[in-house]
Amino acid sequence: MRKRAITTLGHLADVVSDEQFDRIVMKVLSTCDDPETELCCLKTFIIAVIAICRTSGARFAKFLSQIVPVLIQKCESEEDDELREICLQAFEIFAFRCTSELSPFVASIVQISIEMLSYDPNYNYGAEEDCIDAMEMEDEEAGEQDDTYSDDDDLSWKVRKSAAKCIEALITFRAEKLVENHFGQLLISRFREREDNVKYDIFTAYSALLRLTKQMNPELASFQSQNTQSGNELLVETFPPSRFQQILKDEFTEEQKAVFAKLQQQDKDISIQAPQK
Asked: What is the pTM (predicted TM-score) of this model?
């Protein structure tokens, strides 16, 4: 019922008068900013903000200075993964629909996105063997515990997924504000992501960064192409495009196939081709 109500509100906001639109938005924003608002209700109203901005970005833009600080504060203070996910989704739609008005908040959103992309509290990427040992110990003790933590309870992957999509939106729509921010090393370091559907969005964000690099530095791209020909030749010979096609025919999950397909597209984006012999 709530989803239908939010969808209806989003479409309604697109056709009402400016005065009615302002009243709707102010009611939604005041509820989001009210410290007495329950967490469940807060999430619902933030989703309503997303719906309104998606359909009426131009009219919603003037309210950005009121809602963004609230969402930033919620991201930093509330220990709730679903709330963080929704806030990041809001930042993504703001970058897409209210590009100019988002400028004062880009730095803060970038910082939150960077932090949330690496947010994986239940997994230690740097010590996988230790993790395996710890999991074995937990299995032995599971019989002594009434409440057992399940992987199904881990929603942190949704936070990382939303962070990756937010970063892609920032790269695509706020490129001029990212001159001093370097997503490259961060995204590369997150290629080790354990969830395939999150990894797909990380590759998508990295592909957007590669395209942006080519657009902003065509001379540099040309220089690198000339000076890394031998390296590219080795890369292509080691993992030729035909290998991508073979992988996509193998028995992988749909998420894994999507990741490999994105890698194939990324290969095309950076125009790596084997020298003709």
From this structure: 0.76
